[in-house]
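Tutorial, part two.
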Amino acid sequence: MLAPSPVPAGLFSDEHGAWRCLWCRATPEYQRYHDEEWGRPVHGDQRLFEKICLEGFQAGLSWLTILNKREAFREAFAQFDIDAVARFDEADVQRLLLNAGIVRHRGKIVSTLNNARRAQALRDEFGSLAAYFWRFEPAAHQRPPEITHASLQGLTTSPESVALSKDLRRRGWTFVGPTTMYAFMQAMGLVNDHLEGCHVREPALAQRASQPGAA
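Running the prediction step on this input gives:
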């Protein structure tokens, strides 16, 4: 009798035999996010702005907490329309502090308003947020040819996320530390950290390769 195949490190299998990164095991919604969004390349300014804001709100919390509140965040922050959020004022801050559907942290709310104004400046300078953020995509030769569980163990920053954080802070952004920026880069597809063997890894790589300007 053949011995059962070992479970790939860092992965789990669903009832259909599809392997996924272990971090998304908690709920079906988390798995949908992993399958359909995480690591897929994003070039739309509104989605990039939304994600960087939500990563700021996540500080000290789990991403699952933020994901469960994402629709409430979208409603509260005008679908993360950059120009609309840039017009928010103190009255909006007070309104948001009373909104039980979001994370009611004054510093993070004020940061989102500030970052919307900083996003307008980036857009004016570079033409789009995408044109700015994708400058920090690691060169292909700087990423290991195979992303393994061992290579990602404990990885929470990269030279690129440190550089992105430093540049954003210089430009007046807040809640954009290197760890937060690495999570942003993972989610928006600037890096593909789906583990080797995850059924989403190859489709995400193919989607990145099909983007304009891809190496």
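The longest helix spans residues 106-126. In part three we will examine how such features are distributed along the chain.
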